[in-house]
């Protein structure tokens, strides 16, 4: 068993292979957090928190008023906070009773331990693929207002992962109103910590930033109705000395795709508190008697082995315990998307010419992007009218699909189910289906409004529209886009006192629609997109085994975007393509080989008109596809190592096979210098006593190669030599040259 309860000390100890998590019911039936960190066994750790008198400014509970300092909620580590009860730090909950009284004070009443993983109503959550999970459910109640709190924990011991969630139920006689309902509280009483988070903007997502905690509250959040390009719902707390290979670090990943908030507070006594959950702005949830509210899941892990170990845990866990698609571990096709080749301006002949060239070069799928439906020659109109535009595609989709199939390619298509243009038949028929404020002109993004997926009738309509599309056409792939953030949040069918539920009910509607379609069409590969990486989160990975990483396809910019993404998300989830040079977003030029090296740190495909390439470039594309297919398993399912970051002269990353028999190192030199410092790196993850041969060494976009390069790489090396002494590359010249080394164990 991984969960132990000691009735004498009233402690719950949760063990994974390398970590211990402990909490305790105190003498007054309140729940305290005692410890989370390296595995320590089942010793009770309540001695870490001696009673101390902090004066009246940290008030005690009424029961302990004469034992000043014995039990103040303001200074003790909490497992989940009450509300308006003397804990002045950032809290988990805001609740109002029928008489207007705002407050909650939870007392432990029961617990349950069982094998298996809990599930969450209407929300994606991790699943127990290996039948190894164990679950603890702690039940607490506020006897005054009748609010029951269930804290849910599932332990994945071998993965060193703990999942947490919370459920609130009104067991009273009157309505309760929740203005905040976080998923977790994690108190870390000791130590100095730094916050590593991933900020950005559209076309520049998940930029890593690491800063020491300040005294006060630091917030990572989105109020955009999506997890957003601007902040990712994943953060790391790490010790100052922590690097890729060593040091303490905690990871917290919220399994949610809507507006969220993660607060990290360093209080006056040095305690660090993390809370995470749905954003409280525009959130107000009414609970009638008997009704429950379930907060999203959080994936927690701790390691003392540095950032690489933490990342690899999340990579493995998301692939094997979050992604549900049959394509998660299956080989996915190399595809070409027509968007950057044609934008809206395409015909059947143009698409077929791209497909014909793609088939000749080894591409396996063509994806038809925006513009195939309705009155859709630009982004001003047509969104929501999912009937084929036969002016562009005479006879509809099927003749095009049949011709593409005859070329040996599969067919995929772009959709944006959640949106509607005002200039569309759908909006003219159902203007009340859009989120708009009464009496106001709505804010408009990309000339589109958001359909109200908090409504069952809208979800039912979209289910039938896209089920019909997939039933009537042989479509192997769906690119599901979402190209604006949420404003004017108001549902025309929701009563006034429940409008604060619309944003979250919208996300529940999105999950319901995704669940229906991915379940009904399991043989379709679904890829997520939200203007690129605007909804790149663990919840979306429950439905999409891959997500378009960014609308920025510039190889140099993708280095940082994909580097930041890799801290929490697996390479197999990152949609990444080779696009045209000069790049359409930045105007920057990069060698074709370098663009492919960067795209191979993802799902790999193309986003350009292959007809414009020279014969030499076409041969290079053939070889890129052959190389990627040869090393597919190593790239998509191998262990990932960050060897050098984008703020260094060279960006270097490495894949190692699960059995340590193969490795692939990729290097990009964004800006070569005159008289440079040599590019030196040490490999990781190899077997020290084994011997490895560099079987393939390639340099791309380099205007010169010294004889020393051939001499250096015509050798065998021990794993120890490669990991501890390392390798030094010859000088690389040119515009963003790159290199790849493939090693195999002898």
Primary descriptors:
746 residues, alpha+beta, 9-stranded antiparallel sheet, 14 helices
Q: Sheet bearing the most strands, described?
A: 9 strands, antiparallel
Look at the structure and give the mean pLDDT.
Answer: 96
Secondary-structure-derived class: alpha+beta
- Computed over alpha carbons, the radius of gyration is 27 Å
Q: How far apart are the first and last residues' alpha carbons, in Å? A: 40 Å
Shape category: globular
How many strand units?
38
In percent terms, what proportion of residues is strand? 25-35%
Reading side by side through the largest sheet, how are the strands ordered?
Answer: 6-7-8-9-19-15-14-11-12
Helix proportion: 10-25%
Question: How does this model look, in words?
Answer:
The chain is α+β, with helices and mostly antiparallel strands. The chain has 14 helices and 38 strands. It is 19% helix and 30% strand. A nine-stranded antiparallel beta sheet has the order 6-7-8-9-19-15-14-11-12. The chain has a nine-stranded parallel beta sheet with strand order 28-27-26-25-22-21-20-30-29. Strands 5, 10, 13, 16, 17 and 18 form a six-stranded antiparallel beta sheet that branches. The two termini are 40 Å apart.
Short description:
This protein has 746 residues and is α+β, with helices and mostly antiparallel strands. The strands form 7 sheets. It has a 9-stranded antiparallel β-sheet. A 9-stranded parallel β-sheet has the order 28-27-26-25-22-21-20-30-29. α6 runs parallel beside α7 and α9 (555-565) packs parallel to α10.
